[in-house]
Design brief:
The protein has 16 helices and 7 strands. The protein is α+β, with helices and mostly antiparallel strands. It has 2 domains: 179 residues, 2-Layer Sandwich (Beta-Lactamase); 206 residues, Hypothetical protein af1432. Helix 7 runs antiparallel to helix 8. The termini are far apart.
């Protein structure tokens, strides 16, 4: 391998290792691989038991057909790890496959090419390079597939033999980053599972949806405010993890309240509100930007733009009004407008949107028309108008995210159940 190419791959590997969140990492890995190998499209599959889960994909040709600012929408699916499909074969045998022309395969190969995607999308797959992502213990974590190598003049050509060697080196480095990100995600999910044990409505599907919605809204906000690509990458990485932990403070709330089947009394409602500053307290001894951001999200995601939310200006360490100053009712002074952190304002929109579309023990999931009407009515009162505008501009993408994280039971928190006095 040429020394210059190896240096570039090494630098890409170092950059990838800076990413902490799993979903953001998959995007970064595939983007870097496609750019390096001049591939028009690509996908990443992750291993789950004896199946591969189609987890992330990109396609420049199909993206160009969309209006500016729109994103491609794909559904997740699973395929068995066996020799029947190309990706399944690569995962099963931990062996890279370089196919110059998928429609010209001899038929003697143990695997076949599934033409259904090409037919549905009116896309033509030609060359394909598929490689296992293997950790240091030789366990296959997933499969990376890049499609349609492009020459300098834009023609679709085959991947070279040298490309096969290079992508194996790249995939090995990517697998190390992937394993670390999976460990981080597992730790977060265990924390959420603790909350789920206390309140069955708080599940992984809910927090993944809220986190993914929040990243989309933030990307639109960042684009409007001219943030650099590097700053966006760093912030969205931290935001996704922080948004997943927005309700982690409920682990400190009594089961008698969390699992109460009926409406809450005034006193119970006041106790349950404390999950905001109790969650923020977990990140008070900050050692990173993530800690700061997670504390902001936990503390502020129930604040409202007009100052009618909670908990207001409160000291997370003591649970008392900030600086000892309280309003006439003895409660902390309310937060309003930009006193609420940006990320709290963003997660508030994502959280409510998911709540309205979720079935709960005391309500059915709302129809889309009613949800959007309610979101519109919250403009300037519950939600910051600009953040809400960012939400609506990404609405089609948000709808597709819900399909990625489905569940049969309601999963949102119980905290906006109105109290019964």
């Amino acid at each position: 391998m040429e020394e210059g190419k190896l240096d570039i791959i090494t630098q890409i590997s170092l950059d990838i290792n800076e990413v902490k969140d799993l979903d953001i990492l998959l995007e970064r890995i595939l983007t870097s691989a496609r750019r390096f190998f001049d591939a028009d499209a690509g996908s990443i599959y992750l291993c789950h038991g004896d199946e591969l889960v189609f987890s992330y994909t990109q396609n420049d040709t199909l993206q160009k057909r969309l209006t500016p600012g729109k994103k491609l929408i794909y559904s997740r699916f699973r395929i068995p790890i066996n020799n029947h499909s190309i990706a399944g074969y690569v995962a099963k045998n931990a062996r890279a496959v370089n196919i110059p022309q998928v429609y010209a395969m001899s038929g003697s190969e143990p695997y076949t090419f599934d033409v259904s995607f090409d037919r549905l999308s009116h896309y033509t797959t030609s060359s394909m390079l598929t490689v296992p992502m293997t950790n240091q213990r030789d366990h296959v974590l997933g499969v990376m597939q890049i499609i349609n190598a492009k020459a300098r003049d834009g023609r679709i050509v085959s991947f070279s033999k040298a490309d096969k060697s290079r992508i194996q080196h790249f995939a090995t480095s990517a697998a190390l980053a992937l394993e670390r990100a999976q460990m981080t995600r597992n730790i977060i999910m265990r924390m959420i599972s603790m909350a789920e044990l206390r309140d069955p409505r708080e599940t992984g599907a809910h927090v993944n949806r809220v986190a993914a919605y929040s990243v989309e809204i933030f990307e639109e906000w960042a684009k409007r405010h001219g943030l650099s690509s590097l700053e966006i990458e760093i912030r969205r990485d931290n935001l996704r993890m922080a948004a997943m932990l927005h309700d982690v403070g409920k682990v400190a709330i009594s089961d008698l309240i969390l699992q109460k089947p009926g409406r809450l009394t005034r006193a119970e409602y006041e106790i349950i509100k404390s999950h905001t500053y109790l969650g923020a307290r977990l990140f008070q001894d900050a050692h990173s930007e993530f800690d700061d951001l997670a504390a902001e999200v936990a503390l502020d995601h129930h604040e409202k733009w007009d100052g009618t939310g909670y908990p207001g200006h409160i000291d997370p360490e003591t649970g008392e009004p900030m600086g000892g100053r309280a309003g006439p009712d003895g409660k902390p002074h309310p937060k309003r407008g930009e006193e609420i952190s940006l990320y709290g304002r963003i997660v508030a929109v994502a959280d409510v949107y998911d709540a309205l579309g979720s079935q709960r023990s005391y309500k059915e999931a709302w129809k889309e028309e009613r949800i959007l009407e309610e979101m519109h009515q919250g403009e300037g009162t519950h939600f910051e108008p600009e953040v809400l505008a960012c939400f609506f501009s990404r609405l089609e993408t948000l709808k597709s995210i819900a399909d990625h994280y489905p569940e049969e039971t309601a999963d949102h928190d119980a905290f906006d159940r109105l109290p019964m006095f």
